[in-house]
Amino acid sequence: MELAVRHQTIYRYAKPAVRVALLLRLQPSVCDGQRPQHWQVTVNDVPVPAFPANAYGDGEAFFQQMGPASEIVIVAAGIVATQDRQGVVSGLRPEAPPPVFLRQTELTRPDAAIAALADAVRTEAGIGRLHALSARVREAVAYTPGATSNVSTAAEALAQGEGVCQDHAHLFVSAARTLGVPARYVLELEGGMARSETHGWAEAWADGLGWIGFDPTNGICVTEQYVRLCCGLDAHDAAPVRGSVFGAGNSAIDVDVRISEAGLDPQQVQQQQ
Predict the structure, then answer these.
(1) Across all residues in the chain, what is the average pLDDT?
(2) Domain, as residue range, for 107
(3) pTM, whole model, 2 decimals?
């Protein structure tokens, strides 16, 4: 499958920023089953030339602008060729070893309830344990847009019983690590119809298979309709844009993501859906 992707982020500042420094992770992963084609990232219409691999194997670039800036427009766009590999994620550029992703963070730190959720599938064998965990997460936390915020923890979402894709992924990652299974948060762009946001899921390490992508929100392993962007210990660690701004005062952010099959008009795809 070939997916046409356009990811736009606009920062607007109350008064012109004196200096803007951004870390960009907007280069789709190059791996078995995924190849970005004709991909370009621009900041205020200026191309970002290179995205060398970071410690996680993801492309990463640094942008800096000195002088007054009232608005920063970041656009990442191109075609991504994908294949369905039944969730198996292999062939990434040299990356951190799996045990690195046993480390918990403030967003994934387990409590007694998460430990109990993990224990409920502990007797399952092999990859069946991970599938069972994904199903338990989906049952325990109902998908409810707006129920949580980007700073909500896995424990808070489980106690509340509702959340969004970020919460599902954090809870899966937290419980998997509790079981001694390396797991990481993945930010992705999900195809199949025109969209206006990114999506979070998880990858867990299965002996003999490697990294497997699980999407607890949709109850499936990842397919050819998923474009893998970057990974991290949690959603904050996997943010596509991070940085600092000096002298700007209050700011506003607008993010828009459009994905459709290459050759199809995104508005037409959305109407068909």
Answers:
(1) 90
(2) 2-272
(3) 0.91
